[in-house]
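Data deposition worksheet. Section B asks for the primary sequence of the deposited chain exactly as it was used as input, without tags or linkers unless they were present during the calculation. Section C holds the resulting structure in token form. Section D is free text for depositor observations; keep each observation to a single sentence. Incomplete worksheets are returned to the depositor.
Section A, Depositor: J.P.
Section B:
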Amino acid sequence: MANEPKTEHAPSGKTYRKVSPTMFKFEKPGDELEGTLYHVDEVLMDTGPVKRYTVVTEDGEPLSFLGSSNLDVSLAPIEMGTQVLIRFVEVRTSSRNRNVKAFDVFTAS
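Section C:
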């Protein structure tokens, strides 16, 4: 995750901050994403529609990630604008004998 939002300098001399989200990947247990839940939409993947979540970090960077059944259930009741912390806990074996990522989702109080 970058510490500074990406910026571009236009010929006019104005500076623009990147607002299109970067994809965030939960790659190893312990990876976390913290920020404000900003947007939820769906993207069409080979396996069908998948929810895509966007969180804006404290430094203003929009980061998106794809949902999973575990994340979708945990994030469903959370309202846009809520501060969240999402932590990749471990890889588990599902009842269908597939490896799935398990997450903890927290909201600020």
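Section D:
Helices lie at 69-75.
The mean pLDDT is 89.
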